[in-house]
Amino acid sequence: xxxxxxxTTGTDEHAAPAEAWDAIAEGYDRxxxxxxxxxxxxxxxxxxxxxxxxxxxVAAGPGGxxxxxxxxxxxxxxxxxxxxxxxxxRARVRDEGLRDAEGRVxxxxxxxxxxxxxxxxxxxxxxxxxxxxxxxxxxxxxxTKPGGRVLVITYGAPAELEFLQLFVAALQAVDPGFPGLxxxxxxxxxxxxxxxxLRRRLTGAGLKDVRIERTAERPAFASGQEMWxxxxxxxxxxxxxxxxxxxxxxxxxxxxLDGMGRERAGATGxxxxxxxxxxxxxxxx
Length: 285
Known about the structure:
Elements lengths: L17 H29 L7 E4 L8 H6 L3 E6 L2 H14 L4 E5 L12 E7 L8 H10 L1 E12 L6 H13 L20 H10 L2 E11 L2 E2 L2 H9 L3 H6 L5 H18 L6 E2 L2 E10 L1
Parallel strand pairs: 1-2, 1-4, 2-3, 4-5
Antiparallel strand pairs: 5-9, 6-9, 7-8
Helix pairs in contact: 1-3, 1-7, 5-9, 7-9
């Protein structure tokens, strides 16, 4: 699949509505968020978040960056346009007894927040898929204090995502007519999968000293069902891709994923996948 990323890739018509994210919020919190935790901690170390700093998580889901930031002692605000995602975050905050951690429903394209408010503003797999990413990045920069840092985490190219290659292969094994992912335009998830594009967009948002670190997300699965749940609840798009499959076909797809996982499982019995990730950090003047 080829992609062109120099222009904003999508428009509102390509983005899943807030209701679609509401529908997967519980599954995301249960199956997806735990697999993102180590990457989130790595990113917060890279941006050098300190206890007592004000941290804003944009398009936060159930708190992918906000929860580990709060555990580090930061003063945290998590924002997302999905009310169900924010409620999952608030439930985690209550359950853990975290202090100085608030969740608010908010569209990242128009943050209802004052200028120059946060020491660090971040997004984990959030603004990578919004329809007007450049506007969202400008908003993130606007609400960051002078001298503060902006952190953006995106997936790399589709060919570098092992989970995606396995899922598409399994889907094609069940439905040989499935053509694969579109590439004109590509899904919004890949609009800044090229590190150079991400660097230009962060610089275009008014940030300086921008650097992009290449790393990997490494989810691990004990079964095809675990892999299915992780993929299905990570984004509304997979649900749309399999919407035409009947119950028998879905069961076959999970079985194919199970076989693929067994081929990759090590001594622990869990298949670890490698997914390329870009971690962008820029500073506000």
